[in-house]
Design a protein that fits this description.
This protein has about 775 residues and is of the alpha+beta class. Among the domains are: about 75-185, PAS domain (Beta-Lactamase), CATH 3.30.450.20; about 375-485, 2-Layer Sandwich (Beta-Lactamase), CATH 3.30.450; about 505-615, PAS domain (Beta-Lactamase, 2-Layer Sandwich); about 625-785, Alpha-Beta Plaits, CATH 3.30.70.270. About 45% of the residues lie in helices and about 20% in strands. The chain has 23 helices and 30 strands. A hairpin with an 8-residue loop joins strand 15 and strand 16. Helix 10 packs parallel to helix 11. Residues about 1-5 have low confidence and may be disordered.
Length: about 775
Amino acid sequence: MFKSVLLSTLRLRLLVLGGLFLALLLLLAGGSAYVQSRSALREVQARSLEALAARLAADVDDRVRTRQVLLEQAAANLQLAPEQFEQQGSELIARFRYLKGMFNSVLLYDRKGNVIADYPGLPGRLGLNVADQDYFRATRDSLRPQVSEPVPMSGGLKRTVIVFTAPVFSAEGQLAGVLGGSLELYSPEFFGELKNIAIGQGGFLTIHSVRSQLAILHADAGDSMPVATAEPLLQRALGGAAGQAAVGDSHGVPALQVYQRLRNVPWLLGVVLPLHEVMQPARVLGGHYLLLLLVALLLSLPLAWWGMRRLLRPLGRLQNQLTVLQRDPYATTVALGCSELQRIAHEVAAASRRRADCEQQLAARDALFSTLNEVSPMGVLVVDAQARLQSLNPASMRVAGLPAAEIGNWLGRHWLDEIHPDSLPQVAGQWQQLLATGSGFELLCRLRHRDGCRVMVELRFSELATSGGERRFLGLVSDVSAREEARGHLQAERERSLLLLGSISDAVVLTNRMDEVEYANPPALALFGVPASDLLGRLLGVFMNLVSPETGLAVPLRDIERDAAGKTLALDLLSRDMRVQPVLLTLSVMAGSGALQGYKVVVLRDDGERQQRMQQQRWEASHDVLTGLRNRRGFLAALGEVLDDNRVHYQPHVLAMIDLDHFKAVNDSAGQQGGDLLLQDVARIMQQQVRSSDIVARLGGDEFAILLCHCELEVAERMLRELLQAIDAHIVYLGERAFRISASIGVTMIQPQDERAQPVLSRADDGCYQAKQRGRNCLVLHAGKL
């Protein structure tokens, strides 16, 4: 009941919805501000704790380092033999009384770990052996100063000390003893001030030993030394991860913790602050936000009520206006004070007027439909679900060769009776599908004709929309006999054309104005490697990728159509399996004003044999036939490309000229055939010794050259020396004789100022000549031997 009264009017509904929206908006704004405040407060407290931990760690580091340095300097001033150190212990301890300001006690240990002197003296400490203590063993074994773990004092004293030690050496560098200083954990000299530092109300400072995980300083330590708890943050800090503040669990209470490693001693300093203290200002701020939200909501409700009443006042006026329009649809609407409601009133009045106008127009349209049905050249049928004719026009009778005067005799008959027996099964199947699914159909079929002639019609059937009565269907019949006869002649002509195109060995492709494939003969399908079903109707550019043989750049069909239509072009066809097929292409564009205007005919002829012949000629022009290496012409072309490259100014290139030693003797003894075999072996050795990116050439006779691209001089020297060794170790067996040769190599670096090939070749050739003069089988850079 309360719900129905509360939401009975639009005004109350809008008020409730507005109040809920305002409350949600204020809650979201306050919640977002509260969350941001908590996050910002936590970040500020974290940075504050990190800074405090860093300062305290630096202070403890300074205190430890000060005592270490002071103890090391005191030990360094003693250079006594072990016997003297043990004998003069009581005298030496007096010299170190000044250390009392830094330590609670100063002690001297002999090499065996016995206390031989202490200041101030404590009963029972002289003669005490500490050899089993870790700090003494570490000092004795490493001969370095040490800081001990917390050590309980002997003699029943409930105190814990930390011992600083420094080794004392003799003049010969032998360990004479150990100087130590003990410091109580909570003495005012060291930790007393740290223990009294206040961190919030419940926060505290901790210092743990990393090695033993003992608590050197802790709020709960008292006089004992508790082991580090299993707190995850503390354990990770002891493992090496320290320096940033994070939230962890301290004695079951969430707390913000930060741990800092000390530099001079393996200790870990931590600062812990309970999380409820960190978030206390945020909770206070949240209470203020909530109070502000309630006040704002209470103040906004009366204002919203007044606004709703004022905004909805035009609704009453609209009710009165609708009552007037119901009595008189042509009455003039009065101003309602609201443009939206005014449009509603105008629409209601216009709808009333349109309804009256529609009733007047329906009669006129019925008369017009009857007239169109009579004079239409297309046959129109209306049948019921039993295929009985309910209505048909004169054009339907003329298509079947029947007089229009007999229309009345055909009403009530089955329209399927006029379908020719050849087409009846197909038409009857479509009719049954229409009855089952309600989806219309369209097909070509043959009708019976009174004169017996062949009549082809285009038949369309669809279901008429009804308001729940008997199902009715509309049929449209068009005589297409002449069109089908022309289409048959055109199909026969097309088949003859396809037969002619199929007999041509060249690939022929016909495309429309959009470059979509309309036809492709069998050679074209074989060339593209796709079936006709995948090619027809798709863009030719998807299957025919043309590139220029000279530049390797793609050649679009649009460019060929624009610049070279009707011309024969030598191009490379890139197939779908990335094979390159040289072809001769001719593209023709159909002119005129017919249906095929703008269609294109592309003829492709295999040009692989001619391209292979030209490629062989180009190869022979730049390569040596005997060795397969580049000849002088090819090598000079490659060297010219390197010199023309701007990168030669900052990338090193090396040129080597190689002349075979004693080759003439082999050629004279074994003949030209033996010399040719030797040259082939040398060419193979050179190709094996250099990189695949380097260029090897035979310039003529027994003269070779190597261009080492992007190669440092040190790398080139190593490769060429290995080449010298490989040639010198190679033995050629010709008949019953064995021959060995060597090589002389001249090397030069290509300089940034080199612009022509001849100066570079001259420098390398001069180095090769010097190698000959120096006894052959060596390598020379310019005029100096490497």
